[in-house]
Amino acid sequence: MQFPIKKITKTDNPISQQKVKVVCRVRPFLPHEFPDDTVGVDGNSIKITNQRNPTEILKYSFNACYGPTTAQTELFNNDVYPLLDHVLKGLNATIFAYGVTGSGKTHTMQGSQEHPGIIPRTLRRLFEIKNTSINRIDIKVSYMEIYKENVYDLLVPRDSITGLAIREDMNRNIFVANLTEKEINSYAEFEKVYSAACKHRSTAATKLNVHSSRSHAILCIYVTCRDDARGTTLFGKINLIDLAGSEDNRRTENGKERLVESAAINKSLFALGQVVEALSQGSSRIPYRDSKMTRILQDSLGGRSLSMIIINISPGQAFYTDTYNTLNFATRTKEIENRPEVNQITDVRHVAEQLVLAKPQKTTRVVP
Ligand code: ADP
Ligand code: MG
């Protein structure tokens, strides 16, 4: 059945303007690393010792900072859990994990059996809400990977190396054409679907010589919340993104061919940097179309979504340049402002019933 879209007014909107939230997480030293005190966490700030002038400490402040001992639960409860409430109220939210390879992006988003990350925790929580809510909640997921400017569906086996196309609908929403959206009915079902999808990713990796650190993985969770009493349906969406490693491949990879490949891989991250730069400068032209990833996530950067970026940092002197670049990128990201909007549809039948009941009073006009 076709429902008319209700015009959203400012009062319907729980949050009218919201800066991109920036959270920083420093991982612990790994067994093979030599600990030093180059990077430190001090409240909501990260302090790094300037490599050029060791007497100088550079301090960067963010919405929250987490040190090496922070548990997955803490980050989830503080920063992700509150977002879920907004998603159930019809807002879109995006969480990015940004950082160099080995800095803890996959640990933060996916985690392990013993230390599950944001993805499993989000799904578990959503199913808890679904199973106890008086409203009807439906959950669907899609999972895609962007590698060398191609978009691949991870919920189906990969049968070609040509990726999916990105399109724009009548309401100027960007979507990936023919991307599978799978309805999920329980957390156990999600676990099965997700682990199979992760396998598609790694199988494809061997075939195409893709390394997960060089591709972006985007899990989309579509949450539909139907309130029969009010005759409304709210559509929320969460994008959970494990970005490709942000290291400068020109420094780490030698050889001409590798350099060309790196340029293609890094195109999306370079474009992300340019988009963030343009938005933070208040430019009139934002180069979203310069890469697949920025195009798909257009709405999450300067658009109608709530967004949070988790900056993952590898501690120690060895990563100083990467840490310095990452922190400067994060500082620009802080300046981006989004204007979240609720996605709501009102059932025509319900409006008609209300009109009969309320006669002869005037009612709100529903704009088709
Ligand atoms: P990335 O996805 O950014 O390349 P990973 O998430 O794979 O990095 O992390 C690299 C290594 O560091 C992994 O062995 C991971 O288990 C470990 N690690 C990362 N973050 C943490 C953390 N907060 N606590 C414990 N171990 C971590
Ligand atoms: Mg990873």
TrEMBL record:
Top-level lineage group: Eukaryota
GO process terms (BP): microtubule-based movement; mitotic spindle organization; spindle elongation
Residues that hold ATP according to the record: G99, V100, T101, G102, S103, G104, K105, T106
Keywords on record: ATP-binding, Microtubule, Motor protein, Nucleotide-binding
GO cellular component: microtubule; microtubule associated complex
Gene Ontology MF annotations: ATP binding; microtubule binding; microtubule motor activity
Family, per entry: Belongs to the TRAFAC class myosin-kinesin ATPase superfamily. Kinesin family.
Protein name (database record): Kinesin-like protein
Organism name: Paraglomus brasilianum
Shown stretch of the complete protein: 1 to 368 of 736
